[in-house]
Amino acid sequence: MFCTTGLPSDIVVEVGDMSFHLHKFPLLSRSGVMERLIAEASKEGEENCVINLHDSPGGAKTFELVAKFCYGVKLELTSSNVVYLHCAAEHLEMTEDYGEGNLIMQTETFFNQVVLQNWKDSLKALQTCDDSLPYAEELHITKRCIESLATKAYTDPNLLGWPTMEYGPMQSPGGSVLWNGISTGARPKNSSSNWWYEDVSTLSFPLYKRLISIMESRGIREEIIAGSLVFYAKKYLPGLNRRQGASESSSRLLAVALAPPSEEDQKTFLEDIDRLLPMQKGLVPTKFLFGLLRTALILKASPSCLSNLEKRIGMQLDQATLEDLLMPSFSYSMETLYNVDCVQRILDHFLAMDQISGGASGGASGGASPSACSVDDGQLIGSPSLTPITMVAKLIDGYLAEVAPDVNLKLSKFQALAAAVPDYARPLDDGLYRAIDIYLKSHQWLAESDREQLCRLMDCQKLSLEACSHAAQNERLPLRIIVQVLFFEQLQLRTSIAGCFLVSDNLDGSRQLRSGIVGSTEGGWATAVRENQVLKVGMDNMRMRVSELEKECSNMRQEIEKMGRTKASSTWGNVSKKFGFKLKSQMCSAQEGAVSNQKNNFNAKAKDRLGKLKKY
């Protein structure tokens, strides 16, 4: 580059790949460094004075502006070049000793009075600090920019009218919208607490970490800090965008598309994000934590990072979905399709936290016996409200049903995960029964003892009538389990019938009381007819179900008698022990008689009820 002043140049300054052909006097009159270097070159008697400034901050582009300043050209200072110029001026010792209003004073004044007073300019100046290290650090420029941003992020931008990227360029310093450069008085829309997320995501990660640390020390709420970290991580971790829409994913990948980070850089970045995230429950979305864990498993993050993510998820497992839990196995050493071990550890963390906190689920129901969870017509008697642990139990049962078809899933892992959920957490065992049935269907080679051991995980008393009906005809279940299901189904049916009779008697008493007081009316007659029709339908359904149970019990008795014919009389005792009965073979007959008697009583009451109806 040549200076076109009409005079031949007497010095060459080399900055990087650029050579500047200049004059000595303008340079040495403004810079102490140039004065010394020119003096040293003159002592050596070199005809062509050549000075190397390869370490000049900002490179050749910034030195060109410095040279113009030395020649008296007025510079236009902006937030994009003030850091470079200030660092270069300090490096060249352009102080007031070498002329009033020298470059150091001008850049320092502009930086303090303009840049630090504005959010957008402070952000741009901080972005340029990456190219000026370590000069920007020595001059405390980076620190001042970060503190300025932290202070402004803590304050409502609408109060002071700081412009942000959300508002765009058509806004006055006072905050009103501009039209052709004239303030219209219209105010932009109010900003929420996350208005600065997009802006600070343009910073490099080292500067971003420092900014977040300063914000925490200034008292910004942890949920706001966590939201910024989530936004930043989604922008620079490609693996987290797998489940997002195409437009959102492509826009966020645009920043890393030109120079995608290596796997090692991504792993380091993810581990740093994990350390910065707050540990409190509910501050970070559960779906985002599962995305981090899935990415950490792919990148083979450190064990401490994986453990921390599993603990975070365990603290709020009740907020997860089945889709979140279905994490594939990324390790070649694991034979299963899904990472069951990881889900087991997450569940253990949740149960440990639930026990420590003494949650309503554990405290209210933890000491309840299984018999307290009796079932009537598929409804739980005295069941608690839907608590976090009941939600997790339902989630785990659904997960077991999804992983059960995997032929490589070992019985011990399936049992361990199913048994980890406390008994009181399952109001009904229908979900667990479904998972067990799917597992037995996909693992037909299991021995009878293993099948019985697996079926002991569920409580037959906590199966609904629909589940009992299915289990009674399920050939995959062990015979002993089928007998238990039939027995408890009879008990449930008897309870239902007794409840119907109780309701019927109550209706009779209440209707007689009403007739004694107000007399029978035409409207009362219509109501009575409708109620009796409903009751009759219910009794018919009960009669049919009792008949079905009688047939099933009779068939079971015949099978047991056939087994007894082929063995000695002592063998019957062993068969009884195998099926868990302490009664004799007449049990089924006795039960059949009891059910038959109850049926006769049921019919008698029904006839009596219809007889009363005809008297109207």
UniProtKB/TrEMBL annotation:
It comes from the Eukaryota. Keywords: Coiled coil, Ubl conjugation pathway. Pathway: Protein modification; protein ubiquitination. It holds the Pfam family NPH3. InterPro entries: BTB/POZ_dom, NPH3/RPT2-like, NPH3_dom, SKP1/BTB/POZ_sf. Residues 532-566 form a coiled coil. Residues 9-79 form the BTB domain. Residues 194-492 form the NPH3 domain. GO terms for biological process: protein ubiquitination. Transmembrane segments: none annotated. Belongs to the NPH3 family. This is NPH3 domain-containing protein. It comes from Manihot esculenta (Cassava).
